[in-house]
Amino acid sequence: MRQSWSSDAPPERCGSFPRRLRSSERERRMQYFEDIAVGSTARFGAYQVTREEVMDFARKYDPQPFHLDDEAAAKTHFGRLSASGWHTCAMVMSMVVENVSKNQQAGLGSPGIDELRWLKPVYPGDTLRCETEVLEKRVSASRPEMGLFKSRMTVRNQHDVAVMTMVSNGMIATRP
Asked: At what angle do helices 85-102 and 51-61 cross, to 10 degrees?
């Protein structure tokens, strides 16, 4: 069974104001390990890549000429100023955290990623978005209050071109 969820879901409303949820309702709406289905997919995010942010990140963390200088970048296979792959990861993380917060997931962090690929350059002016698919899941053998799941993330730009993929591992609470 394929499920999908998105951060674009409208909030619960009562009249014209958002409805406050009682604690028991919040717990029912919270997404736990048991609510995740292998094969489920999600699409979320819209991150505007700016020239200023590309250069600020590069100055601090990846000061290579093709991330900092138009002329130097023009002489490379990138053809123009491009974002660091690590910056792309950081932008994706921002969208992931926003999505998990909006969708009330009982996430507990991540023990890491198994695979990371930068497929195409990310340029100032691009708009990034994420697509995920749950590949597998299991309850932790040593901590039964926690589940683990593996998912494939594909990051696409505004032209629907995949610019990055990764296979990540997530930890999430089991239902209390």
From this structure: 110
Instruction: Name the pairing type of β-strands 41-48 and 4-5.
Output: parallel
Encode pLDDT of 142-151 as tens digits. 999 999 999 9
Give the end-to-end CA distance of the chain in Å, rounded to a whole number: 24
Of 87, 74, 81, the residue nearest 51 (C-alpha): 81
Q: What is the pLDDT of residues 117-130, one digit of tens each?
A: 999 999 999 999 99
1-22 pLDDT, tens digit per residue, is 333 444 443 333 333 333 444 4
Q: How is residue 91 written in tokens? A: 């932008």
Listed in order, strand segments (DSSP E) in the chain are 4-5, 13-14, 17-18, 41-48, 112-118, 127-139, 146-156, 162-173
For 11, 24, 66, 146, 168, the CA distances from 176, given in Å and listed in that order, are 24, 12, 50, 10, 25
Give the pLDDT of residue 28. 57
- Say if residue 31 is exposed, middle or buried (CB neighbours under 10 Å; 0-12, 13-18, 19+): middle
| Residues 143 and 76 sit within 8 Å (Cβ to Cβ) | no
